[in-house]
Amino acid sequence: AGDALNILKDQGVNxxxxxxxxxxxxxxxxxxxxxxxxxxxxxxxxxxxxDIHYSDWWADPGSQxxxxxxxxxxxxxxxxxxxxxxxxxxxxxxxxxxLPDMVQIGNEIGCGMLWPQGAICGSNNTPQQWQNxxxxxxxxxxxxxxxxxxxxxxxxxxxxxxDASGA
Length: 167
Prior knowledge:
By secondary structure, this protein is α/β, with parallel strands linked by helices. The chain has four helices and four strands; from the N terminus they run H-E-H-E-H-E-H-E.
């Protein structure tokens, strides 16, 4: 019996990944709850990885739906939104003294993110689609860098993990 994070830490866990959704329908995976959990993670002395889904719900290999708030945006506007949203998250986290140690730009993005603008598989495997995806990733990465310099690492999550040729 005891605090779950301390029990996990005592058993060798050293890092916690917290996901965040843009505008979730329920009271979970949102900024206030993520900050509360990040405070517990930091208090336990654990590494904190923030997983930004850039969606209102699960972003995974079968679904990379942009936040509803971004409906109708052009690729340029969406790129700007990725930067602004990432920057806003990190500003709020810095204010709460819980800047992440690492930020994951997107979740399981093997076929891209923010579909259809950033989709890159199948008929979307075009130079323009790759350029769109690169713009989204660079915008998120720049926001992370602007918030924390070199103190925050950046991670890209391809769902194919151990499949080197697929990844």
